[in-house]
Each structure stands twice: as structure tokens, then as C-alpha cells.
Input
Amino acid sequence: MKAYILEEMIHPEVKELLPRVEIAVVPVGSCEQHGPNTTYNTDTARAYAFSKQLGERFGEKLLICPPVTYGISTHHMGFAGTITLRPETYIELLKDIAVALHKHGVKRILFINGHGGNTSSLNVVINSLKYSYGIDAYYSGMGFGVFDDAVNPELGWSEKRGHASESETSQCLAICPECVRKDNLQKGEVVENFVIRGKNNPFRYGGIAFQWERDASRNGALGDARKSSKEEGERLNNVALERVSRMIEYILEHY
Ligand SMILES: [Zn+2]
Output
């Protein structure tokens, strides 16, 4: 099916389409370092490409909005060039976008999130939209958080993977290959006191505003992006597409 992409349309087309739109999809990403492996727009480009693929599945039921290119990247500020918003700013920004879409008659908003750092703010946003503004809003991941359990174990991928690793880079190779510096792929310099996840995470039952270079990786990457594979990226991306499509179908049916 044809995807309906707002920034590529003209006003008469949008006006005509809007009454049939069931959900406005807003891709959200980050402007954040991904070590030597992929560019600063990695999370934004993945979220936007993935959203367009959802648009191809659902046609005019979805209006694919322009991506939000900045996010919550406080934990990556130790790396030059990363730009973060304060959570307060970010939450208001996303709410403004949702309110504008709602004013144009869109019933529901779905944020497609390419960056884990945005998640806690997205929870605030959807709750605030629902209970303070009466707007139905949802969010979903689209990356390794969604497909990680489906990785082919025979590929021998790193245990500490995710950001700028083989899992994220493989998905980039499949859906936004312009983000990948294929000639420069490097293994993540994961720190000894890796505290951001797993059983040994001392903050497992609490929280910390962690710093990536101290608590995760010195060169900004996890895993080993040299093991990236376009084929596996395509397969995993399809897993994510299926899972997120099921969520959308559920929303369409029940809410
Ligand atoms: Zn990323």
C-alpha cells in the first residue's frame, strides 16, 4: 500500500485524507553519538524509515508525521556533538505536536521511538495527553528492544549489545544504510563496571542518571558492529514490524 507521509503531501491531499486517518504516527529519535559506527541521526532515521514501512502496511489509516530529531540524550553528553533536550522541554514539545494533530481531527497519536532514552518521557507524555487533554496516545519501540529475543543465536552476537552495536547497525543496514560507516565499524569499548543493565546492575531496583562513557562504553558503542549483517537486520526488522503492527491492529480494534 501507499504510505501517507505528511511532509511530502500538499494541503488539498491532507485535508481530503484526514477524516479517514485513524492514527497519526510521530517518529521520535535523537541527535546522539553512535561511536565510530553510525551517524548522529541513527535513531531518528531508523524510527522514520520504520514508520514509513508501517504506513505501507496500513495505508490511509496512518498519517506518517515528520520525525522529532532531538530527544533525551543526557547520558551521552560526554561525547562531543550530542544534543539533548531537557525532559521538561521534550515532554512539552511532544504534547504540542499531539495537540496540533488532535485539533485537525486526528483521533489517536502513536509515537514510534528509536531511542531508549526517550522512554520515561514518553510515559509521562501519553499519560498527560490522556488525562489532562483527553487525547488517546501510545508509543512503541521499533529497534533492538523489540526484536532482541529473536536474534539468531548462531551468529555469535555480543552479549552486551544495543546502542551502536551489531543489533542496531544491522537494522540500519536494512532500513537506513546511509547512517552506517561500513569502512569504520569498530568493537565497543565496554567498561569494566558496566552498570546499565543485567543482573549485576547495582541500580536494578532503583535508578541513576548514568553517564555513558563512565558506565557503559568508552568509545560510545556496545557489542561489535563488525558483526553486523544486512540480512539479519532485514529479518529482525520484519519481526519488529510484525510485533508493532499487531499493537496497531489491537488499538484499531479496541480503542
Ligand atoms: Zn541508537
About this structure: The mean pLDDT is 97. The helical segments are 11-17, 42-58, 87-103, 119-133, 144-147, 166-175, 212-215, 230-254.
